[in-house]
Amino acid sequence: MSKVLGLTGDGAVAYAVKQSNVDVVAAYPITPQTLIVEEFSEFVHNGEVNTEFVCVESEHSAMSACVGASLTGARVFTATASQGLALMHEMLYIASSLRCPIVMGVVNRTLSAPINIHCDHSDMMGSRDCGWIQIYVENAQEAYDWVLQAFKIAEDPDVLLPVTVNLDAFILSHSLEGVEVLDDSEVEKFVSIRKPVFTIDPDKPITVGALCLTDFFFETKRQHFEAMRQSPKTINKVNDEFADLTGRNYDFIETYGMEDAEAAIICLGSTAGTAKAVAKSMRAQGKKVGVIKPWVYRPFPAEQILKSIEGLKSLAVLDRACSIGAPCGPLCSDIMSTFYRENIKLDVFNVIYGLGGRDITPFDIEAIFNEALEVAKTGVVKEPLKFVGVRE
Amino acid sequence: MSEESKPGWKSIPIAGILLEPGSAMKYKTGDWRAFRPVIDEEKCINCLLCWIYCPDGAIIREEKKVKVNYDYCKGCGICANECPAKAITMVEERR
């Protein structure tokens, strides 16, 4: 029997972790991830979980402790944001390259300077090549659902890759929503216990992290690349099992109105909610607009996006991060290279928005849709890269 | 060993882990060498300073002389530098 709890995005993550029989949590608090760590440490204090909570002195140490714990075969979780993720950067690669199936909540907050605690995706995009599976969620329900699925995906022997579940700072992390949660016993059955492929064990010594030079390093990276490339099979399988259990269907992307859309927006995270609401009212006026929301950003869902754009004439790619000096934002860059490889001539323009928590309003979204409709009509992209919501 | 004769990515353990403890002997580092130490047995006084100083344990002690283990010698030249009898010459490797 499921029940509905009032949870913040951070609270939903903490609750999912509580139910997942996690052996070790090593974390350092940082706004706006703080609630995850606070609420989880309460569960530990109250004896509601059987988890070793390691208080560390920095995020670099948090991820280091997680790597060590994960190598012993433990189920491991941590959470961070912004500067904390940046401080972890070095260890992110070590976690994924040592094939540690750690699950991490990342509450997307911008990177300094100037110092700012609000939402954008600069933190995760700055570490996007770290070899982790990366999920972006739209609301607290999705945060809860994906954390549960993340353990199962990460720990699958065919995957063995760490997973980040990304949720927008404050917009999701601190907003209270009704979240449908599973019973503890249902979660226990779903996530089961981790069955490690290899562990560090004094009785059966192995060497982990040995020097690996020009003669073998490339081969280990090739394996890592392949693990990511093969991971969609497991992601699909876990999504299916989760749908059987909850009735909630997840996939690599969610689409709205794409069956007949002429112009569409693609974006990550909570903005997709606003975009869908605006699309709904515009569609009621007969405007053929749609929304594509990738849940899974790494591995990049090229195949699913290509399938969703059949018949589409223009696409606005919204990036809540900027890659300064690059031709376009990170999401747009992935989209453009996917389209180029498949020889797709679709008019695309890139919108950089919402940096440092700048609000993106339904009016902004409507204007972007209208511009995309204009591009669909004329076939002319006047501004391939534009900034929405910034003062001139 | 040439690159071609080593196992490919499909057949090695994942994550660069080494499953066999104490297996460093199997990793031969002799091909790192740019110069090889050559011992002149006529000049060698068997003082064993090269054996003491070699950072890789690549000097082999025999009855009344020393030999270089070229499987592991990286060619650093410390032995030649320390040899009081100037019995060791560093000769450029040609492969």
3D structure, described in words:
The complex is a heterodimer of chains A (392) and B (95). Chain A is built from 12 helices and 15 strands. Chain A has helices spanning 9-19, 34-45, 59-71, 82-97, 122-126, 140-155, 184-191, 217-246, 271-284, 302-308, 330-341, 362-378; strands at 3-7, 24-27, 52-55, 76-80, 103-108, 133-136, 163-168, 177-181, 253-256, 263-266, 289-294, 296-298, 314-319, 347-353, 385-388. Chain A has a 7-stranded mixed beta sheet, sandwiched between helices. In chain A, strands 9-11-10-13-14-15 form a 6-stranded mixed beta sheet, sandwiched between helices. In chain A, strand 4 (76-80), helix 4 and strand 5 form a beta-alpha-beta unit. In chain A, helix 1 (9-19) runs parallel beside helix 6 (140-155) and helix 6 crosses helix 8. The longest helix of chain A is centred in the middle third of the chain and has 30 residues, at 217-246. Chain A is globular and about 70 Å long. The termini of chain A are far apart. Chain B has 95 residues and is α+β, with helices and mostly antiparallel strands. Chain B has 2 helices and 4 strands. In chain B, strands 1-4 form a two-stranded antiparallel sheet. In chain B, strands 2-3 form a two-stranded antiparallel sheet. Chain B is elongated. Chain B starts with 34 loop residues before the first strand and ends with a strand. The mean pLDDT of chain B is 94. The interface between A and B is medium-sized, with 23 and 15 residues.
